[in-house]
Design goal:
The protein is α+β, with helices and mostly antiparallel strands and about 250 residues long. The protein folds into 2 domains: about 190 residues, Bira Bifunctional Protein, Domain 2 (BirA Bifunctional Protein, domain 2), CATH 3.30.930.10; about 45 residues, Roll (SH3 type barrels). It has 5 helices and 12 strands. The strands form 2 sheets. The chain has a 7-stranded mixed beta sheet with strand order 1-2-3-7-6-5-4, with helices on both faces. Strands 11-10-9-8-12 form a 5-stranded antiparallel beta sheet. Helix 2 runs antiparallel to helix 4 and helix 2 crosses helix 5. The relative contact order is 0.16.
């Protein structure tokens, strides 16, 4: 059991669900569960990643869960801070097991040059404020074999040669997210921004990107992120430009 104040105190686990995010979204619409409610599924038939992509996960081998939060104190214009805080919480949870993790903008977790986890946050807005947030997390733990069409997957087991207790990893994850969420609620936004930038995958390195609307590739150096989620790149001529989440992707 996680040593938390509220995240995971209400907890439901299923053998299978189409999507933990969708299940929690439906429950929230009907009866407003308490903040920190967690729903976990050993298998998802319709798990989702960013921009409608599918999240593939072997049944029983990994963590697929969603957390309900009510950050009503956070302006919609600052919602990327929630994304940064959650990503840091997951990163720090994995690092408790002796595994170095970096954060690939905007919300993937990488071990070395391979993806081991992803985060999908779905916010409901009320005017200029966030009303509720459903935080979906997929983390590859003990899966060894992956579909051949996945470009660069890995897991904690593949990266270390060890087998992990997924319940222990889950406890560390919930504790890490709650710690960073409370830091965000206390207003320590500069600290979260600084720590997220420091953890960026390929920070300061020449990297190859693709413009998604033109399918043109280019090289640039990752210099950081804007607080609203734009990626800050130094172009070959020395200019700094910022790109939003849908305009480019990092090629790895």
């Amino acid at each position: 059991m996680a040593n938390t104040l509220f995240i995971g105190k209400v907890y439901q686990r299923f053998a299978t669900l189409p999507s933990t995010n969708d299940w929690l979204k439906s429950e929230t619409a009907k009866n407003k569960p308490p903040e920190g409610t967690v729903v976990r599924a050993d298998s998802q038939s319709a798990g989702r990643g960013q921009f409608g992509s599918r999240w593939e996960s072997e049944a029983g081998a990994n963590l697929t869960l969603s957390i309900l939060l009510y950050p009503t104190w956070l302006a919609a214009s600052r919602q990327f801070f929630l994304s940064m805080a959650v990503a840091l919480g997951v990163k720090e949870a994995v690092e408790k097991f002796g595994i170095a993790v970096s954060l690939k903008w905007p919300n993937d977790l990488y071990i070395g040059g391979k993806k081991t986890g992803g985060i999908l946050i779905e916010n409901t807005l009320a005017g200029t404020q966030i009303q509720s947030s459903i935080v979906g997390i997929g983390l590859n733990i003990n899966q060894i074999n992956f579909p051949p069409d996945l470009p660069n997957p890995t897991s904690l087991a593949l990266a270390t040669g060890r087998t992990f207790n997924s319940d222990q990893v889950e406890s560390a994850l919930l504790e890490g997210i709650e710690r960073r969420y409370l830091q965000l609620k206390a207003g320590h936004l500069p600290d979260i921004h600084r720590d997220y930038e420091a953890a960026l995958f390929r920070l300061g390195l020449v990297s190859r990107f693709e413009k998604t609307d033109e399918h043109l590739s280019f090289e640039a150096v990752i210099r950081g992120v804007h607080q609203q989620g734009f990626l800050l790149l130094e172009m070959p001529d020395g200019r700094q430009e910022q790109f939003d989440l849908k305009s480019i992707r990092l090629l790895v």
